[in-house]
Write a structure and sequence with these properties.
InterPro entries: Peptidase_C15, Peptidase_C15-like, Peptidase_C15-like_sf, PGPEP1_Cys_AS. The chain has 198 residues and is an alpha/beta fold. It is 35% helix and 22% strand. The protein has a six-stranded mixed β-sheet, with helices on both faces. It is globular and about 45 Å long. It starts with a strand and ends with a helix.
Length: 198
Amino acid sequence: MANKKRVVVTGFEPFGEHAVNSSWVAVQELERLGLGEMVDLHVYELPVDYQAVQDILPSLWKEYQPQLAVHVGVSGIATSVTLEQCGHNKDYTRLDNRSFCPASHCCMENGPDYIKSVIDMDTVCKRVNRSNIGITVSVSQDAGRYLCDYTYYTSLHQGQGYSAFVHVPPLGGPYSSEELGRGLQAVVKEMLNLLEVD
């Protein structure tokens, strides 16, 4: 019997105009749907807080030692489920929920400017779009230089690239929580399929 894969999936708490954060709603829906019996799924709600993310992510990687960590965030401008290819180190000037931002404006002093995921997001995107599940998926190279990007870079560094970031639109813009959960499930399954091949 093959070993179960461990996957950690995170969403974010509410912030700003997002009184309900669709990322956490989508992650809870994914938890309900599951990823099949060969995957041990662990979900976690992250605070919109730079310092907390710096503490929490290393402990999640250490505790679960996942084959893949997938972080989900809401994007007010997204109308599709958006796969981010890389996380960025610099230019963090937006304040978090505690009105804080890093004095250095970066994730890691002297870290590389960006870190790419080992997962080819273009391939994941094409496969999910071909499967006609009623959710449109796209790919982006810019996760937005806020907590989403910050989380992604930190996780990519912790997990040597075995991390992914997915931006989802706000609820109803255009997808329901069930549709977002289904889209997330399809995306994560394809990511795991790609890792199988490597």
